[in-house]
Amino acid sequence: MALGPWLLRHGLGGARDILRVHSPEPTAAFSRRDTRRLGYERAAHALRQQGFEPVVRPQGGSLAAYHRGSVVVDHVHREPPETFDPVERFQRFARLHAAILAGLGADARIGPVPGEYCPGDYSINAAGTKIVGSAQRVTRDGWLFSTVIQVTGTEVLRGALTAAYGELGYDFDPSTVGTLEDVLPGLTVADVTAAVLTAYDVTGPPVLLPATTLATT
Q1: How high does pLDDT run on average in the chain?
Q2: CA–CA gap between residue 167 and residue 44 (Å, rounded)
Q3: Digit-coded pLDDT (tens) for 135-171
Q4: For residues 146 and 7, what is the distance between their CA atoms, to the nearest angstrom?
Q5: Cα 62 to Cα 129: distance, rounded to the nearest angstrom
Q6: Parallel, antiparallel, or unpaired: how do β-strands 53-56 and 27-30 relate?
Q7: What is the DSSP letter of 144?
Q8: What angle do CA 112, 113, 118 make, to 5 degrees?
Q9: CA distances from 204 to 88, 207, 211 (A)
Q10: Considering only CA atoms, which of 68, 71, 61 is closest in space to residue 168?
């Protein structure tokens, strides 16, 4: 969770754009707003009971969960923004990610589903469930745009989010939690990862950061 903001602050060589695509261990990403809710500690405990590690992310929004069945796309752009226009980025990336999913065969639509977790105008849904969420952070160094594509594990995600949102007291409809697997049986994390890399026109070998990068900087 700390690597995206670290890359935004410190960069990677002289790269202006850095793309990080990964599928993490079960993680419950709270926003700072969530931590001020009366039920935050109980929600964090409920998520640990479900096998999810609670963390606090720098981006806005509200609680989102992801795991090995998710594809997380962090796009870091290291250049001071000329204008603060987060809506344009939300629109642009929503169109890009919806096109990626459409290319895989999903009827992906941009817009919120009533009662969804971490609600946003530029969520992506399919068959009435939320399958993609995004958030961003803008600093003097540039911006970090993070997107979570839920590929498999609907029941696991639904159980964790239902327990936590009940404690946080947000309006939430568990039936809005979904994954691509629900509409495209057999689709894998590897399939989605490959489609993302193709869409971003990524070529060449990945860069592996040493485990001590964050601890020693």
Answers
A1: 91
A2: 9
A3: 999 998 999 999 999 999 999 999 999 999 999 999 9
A4: 13
A5: 17
A6: parallel
A7: E
A8: 65
A9: 29, 9, 22
A10: 61
- Is-contact 101 108, C-beta < 8 A? yes
SS3 at position 104: helix
State yes or no: pLDDT of 2 exceeds 90.
no
Chain position carrying tokens 């009366």:
38
Angle, alpha carbons 145-88-147 (nearest 5°): 25
**DSSP per residue, 162-204:** HHHHHHHT----GGGB--HHHHSTT--HHHHHHHHHHHTT--S
Look at residue 214 in the predicted model and tell me its pLDDT: 43
Instruction: For 95-108, give one letter per residue: b (16+ CB within 10 A) or e.
Output: eebbebbeebebeb
Give me the pLDDT at residue 217, please: 35
149 touches 73 (CB < 8 A): yes
Predicted confidence (pLDDT) at residue 213 exceeds the cutoff of 50: no
The contacts of residue 15 (CB under 8 Å, 6+ apart) are 78
- The distance in angstroms from the start CA to the end CA of the chain is 16
Show contacts of 44-48: CB within 8 Å, 24+ apart: 44/164, 46/160, 46/163, 46/164, 46/166, 46/167, 47/160, 47/163, 47/164
Q: Which of 84, 181, 73 is nearest to 135 (CA)?
A: 73
Q: What gap in Å lies between CA 136 and CA 143, rounded to an integer?
A: 7
Query: Mean of the pLDDT values across residues 210-214?
Result: 47
Expressed in percent and rounded to 5, the helix, strand and coil fractions of the chain are 35, 25, 40
Question: What's the pTM value of the predicted model, to 2 decimals?
Answer: 0.92
